[in-house]
């Protein structure tokens, strides 16, 4: 009888354990369903600038105790992959989607699909050809391009020839920077002409090669403006390889340790630095506010900064995250 009693006790104990495990799993499953998931879809994951956006988004999600999923194409030129990332987020029923469109036109349908699925959508960094989103968080790109024109215009005393290193076609944010640059030169510095401009394919090496090509064709160029991080780093490497540091005016858009070193050495006159950390952070914060039923602003401007040799050390101390340090 004793052995039989022990057998019964053992069976009951095992049953109790299994029941407890089942209950715990069910609770965990229910809790998981209650966890909000914010999917952030960047233009590209291989770019250091977007890694800083990632850090800002992760901080906002961590503060709120929500899950943040970072899902995007490796290259900013891969429109199809970004569209697929958005569709995957819709299929998996994301609580909200924060999107940095890498193509003004191509991602418009994706934004419409997000709206149709009833999912809040916040656009960051670059506009999209749609009004079916809840809020936009980003830099005043036209103004940034205008500031670059004024820096080069003063450096050249209002006369000379400049080269414009552009980015992938239909990247709305960089197109606006280029427009701000060229229109400001026309209005305020008519003695300066843009003698060459090329779109790049999203990589530092391609930007370097295209800048070298433009410098070869226009050896008398007096200045260069590059519209974003890979374009700026590539253009600076071209300036170095052509031994033009300090001999040609150069304004970069977006920060990088290489460009900051260039400012210190005198090879980069100025950096128009966005705050990618703040863009990621505020993009997720806007999404959370929408989920909480709060009214959000249609446009949340993120101020850019101008880094020069005069304020370089101060900016490093005060804004390390924005500068990618």
Describe the structure concisely.
With 325 residues, the chain is α/β, with parallel strands linked by helices. The chain is 50% helix and 16% strand.
Notes on the protein architecture:
By secondary structure, this protein is of the alpha/beta class. Helices cover 50% and strands 16% of the residues. It has helices at 2-34, 48-64, 79-91, 108-116, 141-155, 172-188, 204-217, 229-241, 257-265, 276-291, 312-318; strands spanning 37-41, 67-70, 96-99, 121-124, 135-138, 160-165, 192-198, 223-226, 249-253, 270-273, 299-301, 305-307. The strands form two sheets. A six-stranded parallel sheet has the order 2-1-3-4-5-11, with helices on both faces. The chain has a six-stranded mixed sheet with strand order 7-6-8-9-10-12, sandwiched between helices. Strand 6 (160-165), helix 6 (172-188) and strand 7 form a beta-alpha-beta unit. Helix 2 packs parallel to helix 10 and helix 5 crosses helix 6 (172-188). The N and C termini lie far apart (74 Å).
Topology summary:
Blueprint: H1 2-34, E1 37-41, H2 48-64, E2 67-70, H3 79-91, E3 96-99, H4 108-116, E4 121-124, E5 135-138, H5 141-155, E6 160-165, H6 172-188, E7 192-198, H7 204-217, E8 223-226, H8 229-241, E9 249-253, H9 257-265, E10 270-273, H10 276-291, E11 299-301, E12 305-307, H11 312-318
Helix pairs in contact: 2-10, 5-6, 7-8
Low-pLDDT sequence parts = 1-33
Number of helices: 11
Cα distance, first to last residue? 74 Å
Strand order of the largest sheet: 2-1-3-4-5-11
Gyration radius, in Å: 25 Å
